[in-house]
Write a structure and sequence with these properties.
9% of the residues lie in helices and 35% in strands. It is built from 1 helix and 6 strands. Strands 2-1-6-5 form a 4-stranded mixed sheet, with helices on one face.
């Protein structure tokens, strides 16, 4: 198994994807403790860089992420969480944090 490689802040980026459709929902950050909590509880737990605290996705909104699988890339410096997203994933109220760029904005 590939070992997780954290950056100089002790963080690793996490790409979050709907497990059955493949829809990319969001990107977040984890440290070793957030990863441990996620594994132990089955609920996605992240490190908030702006608030400097842990947050469980959906703890206040009810839009939880039940973790189906955790994968690490070949370099160990990015995680992929396959989740069952209940409700929206984005803080804006959208299903996903990603939208298409129009041809003129690229």
């Amino acid at each position: 198994m590939t070992e997780v490689r954290y950056d100089d802040r002790g963080l690793v980026p996490v790409v979050v994807q709907q497990w059955d459709s493949g829809e990319v929902l969001m990107v977040a950050w984890m440290d070793a403790e957030a990863l441990r909590r996620t594994r132990d509880t089955g609920r996605a737990t992240y490190w908030s860089r702006s608030r400097q605290e842990y947050w469980v996705k959906g703890e206040t909104s009810g839009h939880v992420q039940d973790v189906r699988e955790i994968r690490v890339d070949c370099d160990g410096d990015t995680l992929l969480l396959l989740v069952d997203q209940h409700g929206v994933a984005c803080h804006t109220g959208a299903r996903t944090c990603f939208t298409s760029l129009s041809d003129d904005s690229a």
